[in-house]
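Translate structure to sequence.
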């Protein structure tokens, strides 16, 4: 196994942190372990050569392969359900009551393989019922990884991963793939989620500000200044009265953000 020298480790994690916000400064072993096979398949003889390549001439594809190895895309349907309950019972009723333009702007930032934005899309459709066709209910779903976005767009999941979802929703929004134990999201639901590649380190320049931003279990990889700056960019992209929802194990810095704390992991722009 190749050894990652301290100087190469520092060069690599500094590059990743600066460019992608992901803090791997305490993950030397993880980097060493997870990138060894990449080194081998790409034909490098040691980490110094590989790090030189990454820092100077690597293609976006090679960078992505590296990020995919180093970060986790772990997610599942109905994760942290308390947020979905709040979305259905508090946020949606108020939004729908007050909207004249019938446009909902919801963003799943760091959507991984799509379970979060598809769940949000189902909740919106269920809430609006027969009225849904009169609304623009599309959910924006972004991630830095093309690989997870491709999986998300495919929308095929093992039956087991749908176990926390009401069976009525599974019947309505999924189709079994042949005789397998795989289920595919219906075309209607797929059409309701717009998947895009987006690096959260970049300026947020989507057309309209958001009613709700879900950015759950993403900022765990970021250090405090990176997190503060991103939360600030989220704030500027949230409509007055809109929400930011983060992961239950995460917090945002009260002193550096104007969002008002509502309940664990839920913040509002007042
Ligand atoms: C653990 S998943 C979270 C999925 C979902 N939000 C959830 O809570 O289950 C974290 C996702 O954040 C994405 N991510 C990490 N750094 C990012 C960045 N700088 N810009 C955009 N996405 C990023 C990863 O690719 C990964 O898919």
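Result:
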């Amino acid at each position: 196994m190749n050894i990652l020298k301290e100087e190469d480790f520092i060069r690599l994690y500094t590059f990743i942190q600066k460019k992608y916000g992901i803090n791997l400064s305490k993950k030397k072993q993880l980097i060493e372990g997870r990138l060894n096979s990449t080194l081998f398949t790409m034909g490098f003889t040691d980490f110094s050569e590989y790090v030189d390549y990454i820092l100077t001439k690597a293609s976006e594809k090679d960078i992505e392969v590296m990020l995919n190895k180093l970060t986790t895309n772990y997610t599942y349907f109905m994760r942290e359900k308390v947020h979905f309950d709040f979305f259905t019972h508090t946020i949606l009723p108020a939004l729908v009551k007050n909207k004249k333009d019938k446009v909902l702007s919801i963003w799943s930032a760091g959507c991984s393989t799509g379970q979060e934005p598809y769940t949000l899309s189902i909740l919106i459709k269920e809430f609006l019922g027969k009225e849904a066709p009169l609304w623009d209910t599309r959910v924006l779903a972004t991630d830095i990884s093309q690989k997870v976005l491709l999986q998300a767009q495919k929308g095929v999941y093992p039956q087991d991963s749908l176990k926390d979802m009401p069976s009525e929703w599974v019947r309505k929004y999924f189709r079994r793939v042949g005789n397998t134990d795989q289920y595919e999201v219906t075309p209607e639901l797929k059409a309701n989620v717009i998947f895009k590649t987006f690096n959260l380190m970049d300026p947020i320049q989507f057309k309209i500000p958001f009613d709700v931003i879900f950015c759950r279990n993403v900022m765990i990889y970021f250090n405090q200044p990176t997190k503060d700056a991103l939360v600030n960019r989220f704030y500027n992209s949230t409509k007055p009265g809109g929400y930011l929802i983060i992961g239950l194990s995460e917090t945002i810095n009260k002193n550096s953000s104007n969002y008002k704390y509502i309940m664990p992991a839920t913040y509002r722009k007042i």
